[in-house]
Amino acid sequence: MMKAGERPNSKLLRGGGRQESRRFRMLAIVVGFFIVSLTFVLVSKPDAILFGLNGKLPADQAPASILIQQKVNTPAQKTSTDAIIGGDPKVVDDETYVKPKEIRGGEEEDHRVLSEPDPASGMAEPAANKDGDARKSSDETLGGERKDEAEEERDEEKHAKVTLPTVSNYTIHDAEDAENAKQEGLSLSNVQQEQQQQGSKPLCDFSNFRANVCEMRGDVRVHPKATSVLFMEPEGSQRDEVWKIKPYPRKGDEFCLSHITELTVKSSKVAAECTRYHDVPVVIFSLTGYTGNLFHDFTDVIVPLFTTASQFDGEVQFLITDMALWWTIKYHTLLQKLSKYPLIDFSKDDQVHCFKHAIVGTHAYMEFTIDATKSPNGVTMVDFNRFMRSAYSLPKAAAAALGESPRVKPRLLIIKRHRTRMFLNLEEIIGMAEELGFEVVIDEANVSSDINGFAKLVNSVDVMMGVHGAGLTNCVFLPQNATLIQIVPFGGLDWISRTDFGNPSEMMGLRYKQYAITVDESSLTDHYPRDHKIFKDPISFHKRGFEFIRRTFMDKQNVRLDCKRFRPVLLEALDNLNQ
Predict the structure, then answer these.
(1) Rounded distance, CA 34 to CA 36, Å?
(2) Do 355 and 322 reside in the same domain of the chain?
């Protein structure tokens, strides 16, 4: 302890000062070395810098490490400002010419297309498995080959410029799983093969009178937020296509299509970066339109969707524009049978989805039918009938054969209606059918019916009959060789009835009978005098359009069936079961 008046030890002071000085010098050396090292890396190997993705990917989807494999050498030629880094991805036009930097209002603005790599750091994306979240190996480059550092340096010396990749951004990802890397390499190879398969074939086919369909194979990017589907063209391609399509098969019906979201399908060399990859094809279709009517549910959506997607055996993604949640709940059994993957709601999705195969719209032909000569894989309505019975696990594959089992009573289902086209003498019809030996079942099929339960009921019968209307659509559940009997209201509606249900049922392998009622069997006699033109020349009223036909001959007409006249029709149905 120092005594009063005693001076501090100068040696201790000098020792402490030297120690502090040494610490400072050591810190300065460490900091200086770090700065020199960082400067060296920045100057000599800028393509080895890690970078962020501008907030475009959620944290759980961003790759753990990103190695830059893409370089830019052309100073802003044929680029677009439609999608700016850091902003919302938008559709880009590969023909738009914009300089990378422009002076606007005295300020310099930097424009970069989302698919354009940053000259300093590059752009890269996460890979995906079928769920869209897996990653690729860092051994994989755009062309599927790996280059060591020496090769890269030689390339840089040899070429003053490097062409901007335009085919795909299936690039660099984690090297944690070598097996995944191999699989992803095959994925890229498949993209190139699909691209070659597309060749010069147009992206869309608008020749069908009923439905427009676009089909692309290669690098396809679906951007719901921009309502666009872009086909990424390989370098050197001269394709320049832009199509506008509403993916609902009611071509020419302006009222219906006015409620459908229009998509832009185009070829391009620049586009928004992928944020989700898929290894399965995608089918894009709409659920707005006339859905809600049982017949239109099938003729406009379910049959075309089966025609288009059944070829993939469930390995297909559905992306729905104009989503109707209640509809997907009602028909979830069918949707799950056609696709193993969760539905994507187009209007609520902000991802940029990348596919190797995309179909926009669905294949549709005449009403409620499949044209086997044009359908993918040659599927038919017999296949559709089989699909429906399989989807709902319906046990009855064929109608009863009375010759083999004479003790079995054939079952007859009569579709009952409560508002229009009703049977006014239903009890009399039931009595006649039971007298002939039928076990009669009465039920009403409407849009709110339990599909699963009603499907089982229809599948259990051998003959189904009803007045022309949506309820007859349930014939899709009938077993093979069962008979559909359609009662045609008065008014020259034979052609509509045959088109809507006659031809489709026969194409499904069912037997079909069409019974057109006479004037005496129509309730129109209660509203018009017998000498009225509506009875003498009903076809002339068709010139007023379908709305008048529907309102007059359908919505205001009921049926009083002449059982004596109708009896031979049921006898013929019985004979069919004896064959």
Answers:
(1) 5
(2) yes
